[in-house]
Amino acid sequence: MIQFLLNQELRSEHALDPNLTVLNYLRDHVGKPGTKEGCASGDCGACTVVVGELQTDDDGREHIRYRSLNSCLTFVSSLHGKQLISVEDLKHKGELHSVQKAMVECHGSQCGFCTPGFVMSLFALQKNSDAPDHAKAHEALAGNLCRCTGYRPILEAAEQSCCGKKPDQFDARETETIARLKAIAPTDIGELNSGDKRCLVPLTVADLADLYDAYPQARLLAGGTDLALEVTQFHRTLPVMIYVGNVAEMKRIDRFDDRLEIGAATSLSDCYEALNAEYPDFGELLHRFASLQIRNQGTLGGNIGNASPIGDSPPLLIALGAQIVLCKGETRRTLALEDYFIDYRVTARQESEFIEKIIVPRASVEKLFRAYKVSKRLDDDISAVCAAFNIRLENGVVAEARVAFGGMAAIPKRAAACEAALLGAPFNNATVERACAALAEDFTPLSDFRASKEYRLLSAQNLLRKYFIELQTPHIETRVTAYV
């Protein structure tokens, strides 16, 4: 059984189909059709809901963290122990919520299909910021698409509703809601079981290891932003899933003198602060990783584990010399991330083995790290090419070089010939041009609807040139650039 709050209503579910999304649960099972299906792939934001989760600050203060999610990519099992808020829950005692009023008064809606999603994104923005600036408003709404109004009135609604906000019914009930969430906090393995399909929800790494050993055919579910597409887009059935999002040990970020250890189930939003503090380019790239709804849900371990050749984080992590800790039963092994990827969607992971955490070296002033993403749109788009460069110079000579790319091969990988051309050579135009030519030895990219092979290779070479130019003129702020 799993338990969660539907606004303030306690829901206990056991026999639901584990392949059921929150979107369809709201529309078909509890009669709340305000949440819309636009794309069923996490691109349009029409299905946005907000999930509240109990958090404890470093000073021991308990509060509810509200985050926007795409309900079309969220399986119901991930709600275990949380609070689900949909657009119907905002109106209170016959009065519209302040974000709804702002959308009306600023004329932020026309056909209205996308409006519930915008309202929920604005609600989450209001909850998480006292006075959001223009950049925060854009970030909060980048995952919501509108074909009617244009975005100016919606951004005006964001300013009106979030600046000078007043307490609402959720603030008034916070103490009560915290108590109710504590009362339903999971204490044992949860389960949804429809007879022919099941989803198990462990709470510890040990329980996860035991369950995965017992069900090696199970699909591991973290954020679900990739896995859920098999259900919503390809109409496949997932007979057994194991949801890892309630394993607290895998949602921690531990800081040591020489490294960060990031739990594989840590959301990309939660990774941002730690990675941005060490590597600002990594932080910039995370701002451009899909949408806020996806970053709130997707995990760093999932972005690695799905072994996509166009995943944004692996090239950066490979260039940084990151490692992963793989767990199987009581056995753990540490593997360089670059050795995890073998072929297209093929990895070094063994049966019943899972990524427990990612080890990222702390930043060093001697190493010059930069990252760049080439995509057709600035926000909410997949890379055509993603590049990461990390070199160390001694007296103007390249003493160490790690160069990695995504989108250039069947796997994210280092550019060995390019690195060889750089190593031991003076870091100047001539060396960079030799290294650019060597990229043609490292990669034979494919052509697809995102870019041609010629465009990809030329982009990769130009990014290396760009890296060199920026290091000569560090005042230029053009990192993580989009090319159209």
In words, what does this structure look like?
Helices cover 33% and strands 23% of the residues. The chain starts with a strand and ends in a 12-residue tail after the last helix. A 5-stranded mixed sheet has the order 2-1-5-3-4. It is α+β, with helices and mostly antiparallel strands and 484 residues long. The chain is globular and about 70 Å long. It contains 18 helices and 20 strands. The protein folds into 3 domains: 166 residues, [2Fe-2S]-binding domain (DNA polymerase, domain 1), CATH 1.10.150.120; 111 residues, 2-Layer Sandwich (Uridine Diphospho-n-acetylenolpyruvylglucosamine Reductase, domain 3), CATH 3.30.465; 106 residues, CO dehydrogenase flavoprotein, C-terminal domain (Enolase-like, domain 1, 2-Layer Sandwich), CATH 3.30.390.
Give a concise summary.
With 484 residues, the chain is an alpha+beta fold.
Annotate the secondary structure layout.
Blueprint: E1 2-6, E2 9-13, H1 22-29, E3 48-56, E4 62-70, E5 83-85, H2 98-105, H3 115-128, H4 134-141, H5 152-162, H6 169-172, H7 174-183, E6 190-193, E7 198-201, H8 205-214, E8 219-221, H9 229-232, E9 240-243, E10 253-255, E11 259-263, H10 268-278, H11 280-287, H12 292-297, H13 300-305, H14 313-319, E12 323-328, E13 331-336, H15 337-340, E14 341-343, E15 346-347, E16 354-361, E17 367-374, E18 385-394, E19 397-406, E20 413-414, H16 416-422, H17 429-442, H18 453-472
Parallel strand pairs: 1-5, 7-9, 8-9
Antiparallel strand pairs: 1-2, 3-4, 3-5, 6-7, 10-11, 11-16, 12-13, 12-16, 14-15, 17-18, 18-19, 19-20
